[in-house]
Design a protein that fits this description.
By secondary structure, the chain is an alpha+beta fold. Helices cover 20% and strands 37% of the residues. The chain contains 7 helices and 28 strands. Strands 1, 4, 5, 6, 7 and 8 form a 6-stranded mixed β-sheet that branches. A 5-stranded mixed β-sheet has the order 17-18-19-20-21, covered by helices on one side. The longest helix has 33 residues.
Length: 475
Amino acid sequence: MTESFAQSTVGPALRHAARGVDVPEDPWPGFARRERRHQRTRLARTAAAAAVGVALVGVQTNVVPLPGWAPGIAVAATPTALLDAPARGALAGDQAWLDALRARISTDPPVRLDAPLGAWKIGDRDRIRLIYGSDQPGHRVALVAVPLRFGLLTRQALVWYVGPAGAGAQQMRYGGHSEGDDPVMTLMRAYPDRAGFAVAVGPAESTVTISGEPRYTSRGTVEYQDIARADGAGVGFAVLPREPLPHEPVVRVSRGDRVFFQGGLGGGPYAGLDPTGPEMDALLTGARQPALGTPLDEANLRNFVHTALQDSHLPAVGTTVRVRWSGRDHGQAAALLTLQPAGGGVIAYAMHGDDRTGWWTDLRLLLPAEGVDKRPIGWRVRTEDGARPPTGQVRVIAPPDAARVTVTVGGAPPATVTLDGSNAGTTRVSPDEPATLTAYSRNGGVLGTTPLPPVETASDAGGLPGDSPATRVTP
């Protein structure tokens, strides 16, 4: 009775309540469906990434061609000083010739530039542009900006082309190139049997000189015979003689006081001085006069004089060489010698070294001819490592008649330099401080004064003695 009552009364209520309870389904089937969907998505993304990766590798290795106009990543500085200037030279207006040259360059690259994964290729041919082009006696010369691409990487190259006068595009031959941000491009071709040329292209507002033989004036300045003629703004072109040149021409490109480039041009042949020839033998005879200090041996004397003649661009004939002092520096043979062309200024050279470790030039200083024998001369001693920074030590050579020498640094009182038996001494001057050397006679009178020159920088070293304030005493 009781059980029947419960079943009839409570059962329906319990069943009704149970239907209102939300019992979750088995979670596994849902998880499996979602995982299959995620796997399909991952496979699709992986396939797409792999396709893109293959395409990028193909582009970067130049297997898959990329249009030249497509944007890339520049990996080198752009030569803006030349690219921003208008095309110069008579060929700038010859559109048909320029189009033919573009076509030739785009199908026949001027030079293979190796890269770790392949080679640079010509980019958009429409971006190949003329920087300079002209006909000169016997020659056609062109400087062209060529866009290069290595996959997604880009750069600009400045490329020289040379051919005979009036040459068509197919006759032009590769003559050299640069890939950096060079504000000046130079080219020289010299031949023993026919006329050659030298050309320099700088910023449009610059002045270009190409020197022949220099002239060291008795005032202590250097003058150049400018053999360049202008061929458009910022362009200098010089016709070179048939015979071998005595020295390489020196190019200077400047705007006001700013020097963009100064240095000699390679490309010989040159009629160089034979260091063992009769001209050198005759020159050394006069140089061997008694000098203060330890005498130089024959090999070092010959090498020092030969190096000084080459550096100053002076001939052996007509030049007077004197050894003012010789001794030891850094444990090697050292000397202070002077060179003087007939009627010209005097160039002092301090050198040291030997045939085992090489030779070093410690001083190049152009002096006025008047009173040069009474001047003290000093130079800043450098280390032997790397860029050879100055040590703060100064080597001083007194003139023969000097009783003493002082050094004046800034506004400090003059300090006496202790001299040895060879009239040489050392003192200390901070590398960034100017100083003056003064020589006195036995009766106390001033014989001569000479400023202590600063250490030459890399830009100073490209010119001749007297080109920069660091290599002359005349303002």
